[in-house]
Amino acid sequence: MSDAREMNSSETIALETTHLTKRYGKTVALQDCTLSLPAGRVAALVGPNGAGKTTLLQLCAGLLEPTSGDVRVFGHSPRQRTTETLLRLSFVAQDHPLYRDFTAADLLTLGRHLNPRWNDTLARTRIQLLDIPLNRKVRTLSGGQQAQVALALALGKRPDLLLLDEPLASLDPLARRDFLRTLMDAQLETGMTLLLSSHIIGDLERVCDYLIILSASRVQLAGDIQEITQTHWRLIGPRQEVEAVASEQTIIEASHTGRQTTLLVRSAAPIQEPGAGASWAVDEASLEDIVLAYLGQQAREQARGREKLEVAR
Amino acid sequence: MIWLTWRQHRIEGMVTLAVLAAGGVFLLITGLNMVNTLQDSGLGACLASHPADSSACGALGTLFLRQYGSIIPFAAALLLAPILLGALVGAPLLAREYEQRTNLLVWMQSVTRTRWLSVKVALVLGAGALVGAALMTMLIRWYAPFDLFVGKFNQIAFDFSGPVLIASTLMALALGLAAGAVTRRTVAAIFLTLALIVGIRILVEFNLRPIYQPQVVVTWPIEKGFNDPAPATVGKEDWNIDSGLLDPQGNRTNGIHCDLPGYTDPVQCGKDEGYRGHYLAYQPADRFWTFQWIETGIYLAISALAVALTFWLVRRRLS
User: Would the CB atoms of A110 and B316 count as touching at under 8 Å?
Assistant: First the structure.
C-alpha cells in the first residue's frame, strides 16, 4: 500500500499541518496554520522577520510542541512518532549551528554514528568537491563553508523532507549561488521535498515551485507558483474606477499615484474588461509583486487594527 | 552517542585525569613520608602495642601531628575537585549546547532527545562516580596514619572516608546538568551550580550531619578548671561536636561569667555561684557508617531530583 503511494508521488503529502497554532504565553507565534505540501516539491516559505517562519519549521521538525492543531510528516506526528519521522527528516537551523571545535570529518563521524540511513560517501564527496578541508576545526572555516558542511550533514542523512531555516541569510552572493546549486543537485538526484524559509523571495524564485507566504503569524497564501502567477494580475488605470473593479474582482492591493491607480487582483480567469471596461491596462503580476502585495495587505490590516484599538481607548 | 560524548568532552576528561594524577602524586609523596616517620619514630610500634589506648603514645603522637597536621588542608583541597567538576563539566554540558544552538543540530539526528540525554547523563555520571571512587581510595590510604589516633569521624575526614564522596561528586554533576538546562547559559549555569553545591553542602554538613542521630551528652563536675578531662567513655575517635560549661540554670555556655564579689579565681567563683559542670556533646565513633549512608542517601536523592528535572526540561523545552 505504501509502495503504491510512493510510486505515485503526486499523491503523497510530505508535510501537512492542520489548524496549527503555537503560543508562547500570550504571544502568538503561529495562528491557525493549515498547509499541505506535496512530496517532491521545492517550497519557499516567505515572510517578514518575526512572521513565525522559524516557529512553523521547528513545529514541523518536531522540535516544538504545538499549542493546538496538528503536524504530519509523511503521515506521522513528529512529536508522537519521533523515531520514524526523525529518520526521514532533516532540519538546518538558522545560521547553521555546528560544534565549532569539531572538524568537518568529526561532524561526518557524528552523522555516521547517529543515523542508520547515513550515506558517508555522499556527504564526504560533497565536502571534498567543494575543497573544504576535512581536518580543520569548523570555526576556522568561512561562513559559506560552514553552511555547506551543515548541508552535507543534513543530506548525508538521506532525508525525504529537508527543512532549511533562512539558509541564505548569512551568506554572500557567491556562497548563496554555490549553496543553492548543491541543494538543487541533491534534490534532483533524490527527489526529496524541500522547504526553505527566507524573508525575501528573490533568492528562492529561481529554484522553488511552491510558495507559502507567512505574515503576522498567519498563512496568507500557499500554492503552486505557476498557479499563483497565473491567477494574479496587475491593473493600471484611473483612480475613480477602482470601486467598479472592486465589485467584480478580489483586490489584494491598491496603490495610488496622482490620478492613476495600480491594483493587484486575484482572478482565476484572465481579466478581459475590468470594471466598466474603460482604460485599464492588464498585465501578469510578477512573483515579487504578489509577495509584496500579500505582505502589504497584512501590514495595512494591522495598522487598521491599531487605529481601532486607539479609537476604542 | 558514546563516541559523540567522548569527542565533546574529551578535554574535560583529560584535565580531570591530570588533576587526579597530580593529586595522587602529592598524596603518594607525603603519604610515604608519613609512613616512614611513623616507623622511624617508633610511633607505629607504640600504637600497635597499645591498640586500645592511643593516648599511651601521646608524646610521639603530638610530635607526629605537629609535623604533618599542616598538610591535611592541602589534601582536603582535593575535595574541591568534585565541586569544580560539577561547575566546569556538569554546568556547561547542556548550557553550551543551548547557548551555541547545537541542540538544534544534534536533536535532528536519528536519535531521540531522551536517548541522547540518557547516554550523556549515564556516561558523565558514571565517570563522575569513578572520579569520586578514585579520590576516596587515595585519600583513605593517605589518611590511614591519622586514622590511627584521631579516627575518621570528624568534619574533614568524614567527607572522603566513605561513599559520601562518591555521592557528593554525583550530586555536583547532577546539579550542574540541571542548572544548565534551567539557565541555558554557560556562565549563569556555572554560578548557579556553585551556589547550589555550596549551599546544600553547608546546610548538610553543619546543620544536618551533627543531628542524624541524637547527640550523646556527657557531663562531669568542675574540679581544677577549664581543662578537666572528660570521662574515659569518650574516645578520641568519637566526633566531638560541642563542649563547654553548664551554668547555674543548666544552659550551655563557653566560659564562666561570675558576678559574685571578692573572687580573683573565676573557676572558684563559678563553682560557688553554682555552675553545674562541664558538658560534651558528641557522636560515638560506631555511628560512622550509619552517618555515611544517611548522607550518601541525601546526596543521591538530590542527584535523582536534579536528573529528573533535567530530563523534564530537555524533553519539554526547545531553546
Answer: no
Range of the domain at B49: 2-211+287-316
Nearest-by-CA chain A residue for B4: A110
Residues B167 and B303 in one domain: yes
CATH for the A231-312 domain, from 3.40.50, 3.30.920, 3.15.10, 3.30.70: 3.30.70
What's the alpha-carbon Rg for chain B, to the nearest Å? 25
| B4 interaction partners in chain A (CB closer than 8 Å) | 110, 113-114
Confidence at A280, pLDDT banded by 50, 70, 90? confident
Measured in angstroms, the CA of B83 and the nearest CA of chain A are apart by 26
- Segment of B160-164, B225-229, B233-237 carrying the highest mean pLDDT: B160-164
Summarize the confidence of residues B289-310 as an average pLDDT. Answer: 98
Of B8, B100, B109, the CB nearest to A114: B109
B113-150 and B58-68 are packed helices; what angle lies between their axes, rounded to 10 degrees?
A: 140
With vertex at residue B81, the alpha carbon angle to CA B90 and CA B115, rounded to the nearest 5 degrees, is 25
pLDDT at B5 over 90: yes
What residues in chain A have their Cβ under 8 A from chain B's Cβ atoms? 58, 61, 63-65, 82-83, 86-87, 89-91, 93, 95, 97-100, 102, 106, 109-111, 113-117, 150, 153-154, 157
d(CA A72, CA A19): 12
Contact A225, A284 (CB under 8 A): no
Kindly report the CATH number that applies to the domain delimited by A2-224.
3.40.50.300
B7 and A97: CB-CB below 8 Å?
no
How far apart (Å, rounded) are the C-alpha atoms in residues A72 and A53?
Answer: 17
Whether B23 contacts B71, CB under 8 Å: no
Q: Which residue has cell 521547528?
A: A58
Phi, psi dihedral angles at A266 (to 5 degrees) = -105, 130
Q: Are B12 and B88 in a shared domain?
A: yes
> B107 to chain A: which residues are within 8 Å by CB?
63
ipTM above 0.95, yes or no: no
Tell me: do B36 and B144 sit in the same domain.
Answer: yes
Nearest CA in chain B to A118: B110
